[in-house]
Amino acid sequence: MNPIIEIKNLIHEYKGQRALDGLNLSITPNDVFGFLGPNGCGKTTLFRILSTLFPPTNGEVQMMGRDLLTDFYSIRRKLGVVFQNSSLDVKLTVWENMIYQGRLYGLSGRVLVRRVEELLNRFGLSERKKDLAGVLSGGLKRRVELAKSLLHDPSILILDEPSTGLDPGARLDLWKYIQYLKSMGNVTVLVTTHLMEEAENCARVAVMNKGCLAALGSPDELKKELPGEVVEIQTAKCDELRQAIEKQYDLQAQIIPGGLKLEHPEGHRMVAQLMEKFTGLVDAVMVRKPTLEDVFIHKTGYQFWMSDQSDETPDRIKQK
Amino acid sequence: MISLLAIRTIWAREMIRFYRQPSRVMGAIGTPLIFWLLIGSGFGSSFQTKTVTAGGVSSQMNYLLYFFPGTILLVLLFSSIFSTISLIQDRSEGFLQSVLVSPVSRAEFILGKIFGGTTVSFLQGVLFLVIAQTVHMALRPVQVIEAAGVIFSVSFAFTALGFVLAWKFKSVQGFHAVMNLFLMPMWFLSGAMFPPDGAPGWIRFLMNVNPLSYGLALLRQALSGQTNAYLFHPIAGFELYVLIGFTAMLFLVAHFYAARRRVEDLV
Q1: Chain B partners of A87 at a C-beta cutoff of 8 Å?
Q2: Rounded to 5 degrees, what angle do the CA atoms B13, B18, B20 make?
Q3: Does A100 touch chain B (CB under 8 A)?
Q4: Could A51 and B101 be called an inter-chain contact, meaning their C-beta atoms sit closer than 8 Å?
Q5: Nearest C-alpha of chain B: how many angstroms from A28?
Q6: Most exposed residue of A50, A192, A214, B6, measured as fewest CB within 10 angstroms of its CB?
Q7: Angle at alpha carbon of residue B182, lines to B177 and B185, rounded to 5°
Q8: CATH superfamily for domain A5-223
Q9: A305 touches chain B (CB under 8 A)
Q10: Taking a contact as any Cβ pair under 8 Å apart, which residues of chain A between 107 and 166 contact chain B?
Q11: Which residues pair with A20 in a beta bridge?
């Protein structure tokens, strides 16, 4: 199947920092595709470039067979964008927000009214259509954003950290609608996220780190790249236990908040040994299957939360 | 190809936002009404008739006639420029980003925004013209039409100026501060308070390069019915050319800014 998005050697620099550093990626149509990574990994820059907000410093992007650098106006006609921060006009009603959005995409008259009614209905918003957007809850606002971005029947829908600021219920609700879009089968959904559980919902995930691709595949494929199981040990004496374990076994232990973490093909068999050999040091042991976070750490060599604090994004520089 | 639907949509949104903010509506209608009350009740009758020489043409007029166009101009200036605060709000409230990724061209967006601000400002100006009829300034219909035309052009030009400035500002407070810094001097140096003749050379120079002076001259011509009065330049219609040129230049600058697609413009 021909890719709907083809990214070649994409580079973006901002104030001397490289936000994207030679990214290569192909995305097949009608998938829910996730960009996973900590703040500062370049995913927001990538989102902004793909949503045509600004051109990259270098590299090539083809979207729907069109060149993003030169043909961005025609790409915009088939592109839906949901921003991290609400783009609704809070002084307009839900209905007005929808109608005005449709007109910006060249829809008008009965066609537009029918389309707005259909989408409001589908997203369970019909009863709120006369409400000002400003009075809606965060979850409902996000739902209106989603409905609004689909008015012009886009082939690609890009969502930037869509569940930011949503409570768990609203988050589930949002993903229910995103999965529903997938079932419709004519839209490719791109989602940027720093949440592992959100990435689990995607058909394919690009794990990003420092502006590059760290790993690519379905969540299951990615997890299979880690052999065996993950053992987490709760301890108050991290350094001591780490040295002791590394001396005893031929493996590396990583320090995590509150304890240590090991990867082992047969992790469950280690539990009894650990409890016996390091009685005074071990408070608790847990064995589990690898998660995407483990994959991230395995691929990049450092913790998600560590990279979050140490990396500087163009956004952060600007805020200073 | 410019899409009228896009321009109309952006314009209509500006209108809805205007009337959904009662304080803005109150300010827009209240300002001319307060002037009318002040001028109409006593203040106006204390103006003396005197001889004014402007551009080598002497004419009899009273100070009310001299002061009135400047008052309209002041209101237009503030109304037009401050209406573009909505651009800063569009950016901070997030609406702007959805326009920037839509197929609406930057020219359509700018025109929609400018027409929005112009409409509010124009209606205020026209309200002043209605009031003029009640304060001993009986205008002929042709004068009213001419004056309305000038009011529209001036509003358009200054909303365009507001757009250019607002694009560069990230906060409403900063915009307010800087606007006051040079809006008032611009108004003082437009000939609204005193004619250029008789002013020191450097003041006269500033008045000559101030685009607002040309808008005022046009308004004076329309309201006084004397097309040769208050000329800045002997070429007929020169003031109008300056105003049109000024507006065109601002539009190009606005387009240059808005079309750049930079990270700095997003937040």
Answers
A1: 94-95, 97-98
A2: 95
A3: yes
A4: yes
A5: 22
A6: A214
A7: 135
A8: P-loop containing nucleotide triphosphate hydrolases (3.40.50.300)
A9: no
A10: 108, 148
A11: A12
* A126 vs B60, more confident: A126
Lookup result for tokens 């490719």: A188
The span from the CA of A101 to the CA of A78, in Å, is 14
Contact list in B for residue A165 (CB cut-off 8 A) is: none
Distance CA A37, CA A178 (A): 20
Q: Please, which pLDDT band fits residue B103 given cuts at 50, 70 and 90?
A: very high
Pick the CATH number of A227-289 from 2.60.40, 3.30.70, 3.30.310, 2.40.160: 3.30.70
Q: Which of residues 15-54 of B touch A (CB under 8 A)?
A: 16-17, 20-21
Q: Quick one: pLDDT at residue A312?
A: 36
Kind and range of the H or E run holding B223: helix B211-224
For the ranges B63-67, B166-170, B252-256, the maximum mean pLDDT occurs at: B252-256
Residues of B with Cβ-Cβ distance to A100 under 8 angstroms: 9, 12-13
**What pLDDT does residue A308 have?**
42
Contacts of A148 in chain B (CB under 8 A): 98
pLDDT tens string A258-310 = 889 888 888 888 888 888 888 888 899 999 988 888 888 877 766 554 444 43
Q: Where are the domains of chain A?
A: 5-223, 227-289
